[in-house]
Design goal:
Helix content is 42%, strand content 13%. The chain is an alpha/beta fold and 401 residues long.
């Protein structure tokens, strides 16, 4: 009897261990599967072309797509690269990015930017990690510490895309998994030396203001992160990160607002400004990319045979009305979209809409050397908040007084 009780106790213990482990694995697989099905839908859009895929160590496809309006001239467009999912245990940047892409290809007002802009998107840089809810890839490597060595397939895949497309702007999306000594919702600008490019900072400030992110300006010799490696090569390259204690819906709205703001800003910029932003911008290989930028077929023209005169009159009237509407819309389409994007479950704290700069030493990764910048209020880190443990409770906002 005792033996039977002990055996059943052991069985219950094992079952509880299995049940405790199952939800996280299922949730991770769920997020990865959902991202794949979202991407499959997005890839059906006429505004999307699928680039040749790479292969992860576990044999999963490394996906990349091009998003643009293929019927507008391709050579003069700004090129923006967006990466997410380098760390497989950070699902929210992937969800935020796919939500942004869905909006962009489905909403008329949003996709106007695609006339002036080409997006090169790698939605899940580390698919093996994402499928297993694990930070590293299948070989145990942290992809976002591999940008100097390029030892991983995942980093080499993205590196090849950068060398083919020479994006004017590179955005890398992450989220904090623990409490941090810096404001968690942030856009990091990196330069090898203190100071850095004014233009790079200007774009970060604009994105920060729209999405309620604090701009962290960093310099140092730690360049094995994606945005730092490409910043050190002269690209306008940014890390966007959200705080660990934010609800997922708010995080997604922040990524959407930040991405739209960056794309909108770079689309508006003159071609002169674009070439300043990225020294590699005129070196990209038009032969490689041309195949992905030309329309598959000419737009269909539906001819009206029944009542040609009336049809012609109606078309002329329609043209006048549409032209007027287009002119009206031209004025503030992006502002309207931005407001809607922000309202969708996220209202940024007005105080955070004027982000301040933090000059930080990154060689020690501790962000301890903090100085005011641009005449902004002095920001000091309370010592007890530096490197505080796991994220369990609501983080006190680290705002300047
Ligand atoms: Zn990360």
């Amino acid at each position: 009897m005792n033996t039977r009780v002990a055996a059943s106790n052991r069985l219950v213990a094992w079952l509880s261990v299995i049940l405790a482990c199952a939800p996280s694995a299922t949730a991770a697989a769920g997020i990865y599967d959902r991202a794949l099905s979202d991407m499959a839908q997005i890839e059906q859009s006429p505004y999307v072309r699928v680039l040749p895929a790479g292969r992860s160590p576990d044999g999963r496809p490394l996906r990349a797509i091009v998003v643009t309006d293929f019927f507008s001239p391709s050579q003069s467009k700004a090129r923006v690269m967006i990466c997410a999912g380098q760390h497989g245990d950070e699902p929210n940047p992937i969800v935020g990015l796919t939500s942004f892409l869905r909006d962009l290809v489905n909403r008329k007002d949003a996709r106007k930017v695609l006339k002036d802009c080409v997006l090169i998107v790698v939605p899940i840089v580390n698919p093996d990690g994402a499928a297993a809810n694990r930070r590293t890839n299948a070989a145990g490597a942290d992809v976002n510490r591999d940008w100097m060595k390029l030892a991983t397939e995942e980093a080499r895949f993205v590196d090849t895309l950068v060398s083919q497309w020479h994006p004017h702007v590179i955005l890398d999306l992450h989220e904090w998994r623990q409490r941090t000594s810096v404001p968690g919702d942030e856009i990091e600008v990196f330069s090898p030396r203190a100071g850095g490019s004014q233009l790079q900072r200007a774009l970060a400030l604009r994105v920060g203001r729209t999405a309620g992110l604090t701009m962290l300006q960093c310099h140092g010799d730690r360049q094995d992160l994606l945005h730092r490696r490409f910043s050190s090569e002269g690209y306008a390259s940014y890390l966007i990160e959200t705080a660990c204690d934010r609800p997922p819906q708010e995080k997604h709205a922040i990524y959407r607002a930040a991405l739209y703001s960056a794309v909108e800003a770079i689309s508006e910029a003159s071609s002169g400004t674009r070439s300043i932003l990225s020294p590699g911008s005129d070196r990209y290989d038009p032969v490689v990319v041309a195949g992905f930028l030309t329309p598959k077929s000419a737009p269909r023209i539906v001819a009206s045979k029944g009542m040609p005169v009336l049809a012609a009159a109606m078309s002329a009237l329609g043209f006048v009305v549409l032209a007027r509407m287009a002119r009206k819309r031209e004025r503030k389409p992006c502002v309207r979209y931005r407001i809607r994007a922000l309202r969708r479950g996220y209202d940024p704290d007005p105080a955070r809409l004027s982000p301040f700069s933090v000059q930080a030493q990154t060689t020690t990764e501790s962000y301890q050397s903090v100085e005011p910048d641009d005449g902004a209020a002095v920001f000091r880190l309370p010592p007890e908040r530096i490197n505080t443990g796991p994220c369990r409770q609501k983080q006190t906002r680290l705002m300047s007084p």
